[in-house]
């Protein structure tokens, strides 16, 4: 398993597909085997994983695995202890109640890099910083949680995923670093990677349910393939027959038009 850490800059899309207006992962990582695990929104910064392991993204975003993701968040207004307590208990969002978060007010850190472009804020309104950790992976979750308790987000930086700490690695925006997974306890229980199966693999009575089928090569050796045979892969003897009651006759009627009298 290969894992590369990237400090994603602001205004960069979490995708490899080229974009006319914005930079993407391809501008910082040139490895066709790597895929993104744990994406960040375009207006968020910080730690993302790039890996060749197909199940890592699901593993770190599944709340049952308790892989906390930590964010440094600048909010509009002087955050209150009451708001922080609401975050710790969980807040009600449109897609349901969140799990309890770890939340604390912190000072602006000395290691913080300048954002380009800088954050826009009103001179008459103070700002404050929160460190918040969650083990869920909902869309824009931290931003929505903070806004729900009355403190809109101005800047959001992911600093940790489990024991992987972006600050300790001293990665600047746009920099990458490959890590050894065996040195981190977070990756010791990741299930073995399984081949991708499409949604069409639905178990049906008498079917394979997406399990590999045994077929033979021309030399007689066993060949395993996943999925159900398509109609064009079947011999004539294997193709399904239409059931009739014995009274079916050929259709000799001329095709009808859309309007009356065939018009």
Automatic annotation (TrEMBL):
Keywords: Isomerase
Pfam families: PseudoU_synth_2 (PF00849)
Any one Gene Ontology BP term: enzyme-directed rRNA pseudouridine synthesis
Keyword Isomerase on entry: yes
CDD domains registered for this protein in UniProt: PseudoU_synth_RluE
GO cellular component term of the entry, any: cytosol
Enzyme class: isomerase
Region entry Disordered, spans: 195-263
PANTHER family documented for this protein: PSEUDOURIDINE SYNTHASE FAMILY PROTEIN-RELATED (PTHR47683), RNA-BINDING S4 DOMAIN-CONTAINING PROTEIN (PTHR47683:SF2)
The protein's name: Pseudouridine synthase
Organism: Acinetobacter celticus
């Amino acid at each position: 398993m290969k894992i590369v850490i990237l400090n994603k800059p602001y205004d960069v899309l979490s995708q490899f597909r080229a974009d006319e207006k914005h930079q993407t992962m391809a501008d910082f990582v040139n490895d066709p085997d790597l895929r993104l695990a744990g994406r960040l929104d375009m207006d968020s910064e910080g730690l993302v994983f790039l890996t060749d392991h197909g199940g890592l993204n699901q593993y770190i975003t599944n709340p049952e695995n308790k892989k906390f993701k930590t964010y440094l968040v600048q909010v509009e207004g002087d955050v209150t202890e009451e708001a922080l307590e609401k975050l710790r208990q969980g807040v009600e969002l449109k897609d349901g109640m969140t799990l309890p978060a770890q939340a604390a007010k912190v000072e602006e850190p000395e290691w913080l890099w300048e954002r380009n472009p800088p954050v826009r804020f009103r001179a008459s309104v103070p700002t404050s910083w929160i460190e918040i950790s969650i083990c869920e992976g909902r869309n824009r979750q931290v931003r929505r949680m903070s806004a729900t308790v009355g403190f809109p987000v101005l800047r959001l930086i992911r600093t940790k995923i489990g024991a992987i700490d972006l600050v300790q690695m001293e990665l600047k925006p746009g920099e990458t670093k490959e890590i050894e997974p065996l040195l981190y306890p977070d990756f010791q229980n990741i299930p073995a990677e399984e081949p991708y199966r499409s949604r069409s693999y639905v178990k049906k009575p008498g079917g394979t349910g997406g399990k590999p089928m045994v077929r033979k090569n021309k030399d007689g050796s066993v060949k395993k393939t996943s999925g159900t045979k398509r109609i064009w892969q079947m011999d004539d003897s294997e193709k399904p027959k239409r059931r009739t009651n014995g009274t079916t006759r050929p259709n000799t009627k001329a095709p009808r038009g859309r309007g009356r009298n065939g018009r």
